[in-house]
Amino acid sequence: MTKFIAFVSGKGGVGKTTSTLNVGQALSDLGKKVILLDANLVTPNLALHLGMINPEGTVNKFLRKEKSFHEVLYKHDCGFSLIPSSPSLDEFLNTKPEKLSKIFGHLEDTADFVLVDAPSGLGHVFNEVLKNTDEIIAVVNPNLSSVMDALKTIKMAEANNKIVAGLIMNMSNKGRHELKQQEVADILNYPILANIRQDNKARKSLHQNLPLAYLYPRSRTAKEFQKVASYLSLEETA
Questions:
Q1: Tens-place pLDDT, residues 121-158
Q2: CA-based, 20 to 30 A from 30: which of 21, 77, 204, 236?
Q3: Which numeric CATH code is attached to 3-237?
Q4: Gyration radius from the chain CA atoms
Q5: How many CB atoms lie within 10 A of CB 62?
Q6: In the chain, where are the structural domains located?
Q7: Is pLDDT at 45 greater than 70 in this prediction?
Q8: Angle at the Cα of 228 (from 235 to 20), degrees rounded to 5?
């Protein structure tokens, strides 16, 4: 049975795509079959992080019946598969987000995990993602505005009876001039599954269009993402 997990945030730029990509890599390294779905129809970045500038097969074209499911599913050399969204404005304007459930229907029983890079905020596309996923992981930065925006997102997920697996605190600075890990957990009332510090390896991996967890699997940052993957794997068998 496929588990659908959405990576969400209250605002953009907090590291949601990076977290989706690297947790997916870590799950793949554990022997899980993983598909990454870019459901951020407005500003998709998942394919761009892997060097796919303008993929021919996209979820947009699938929803318009211009491409089959297998034509929009890309197998990556790192081990996971990917369904990208188009970075084109015209493609976005010609895509009906209320049809997103169609791609989720095709993904059922195709993998152990489908990790969804959700749009930030509380818009219509986000609501469609919530309808079609089992649980969420909220990605936050250790500052008050990011945390409070994430709180609204979490409350929306709870209102839709979704499981909140926990939090990924991203781009922390060893506790200097920022909210402490426990403070973030207390405000949001969920455990922090990983604390991702600012890491130059993240820039290097982004430049090389590969997951950090793939390029530097023994790094501290990769081990934090591996903790999330291990938690999800244990949750799957519970």
A1: 888 889 999 999 999 999 999 999 999 999 999 999 99
A2: 204
A3: 3.40.50.300
A4: 17
A5: 22
A6: 3-237
A7: yes
A8: 110
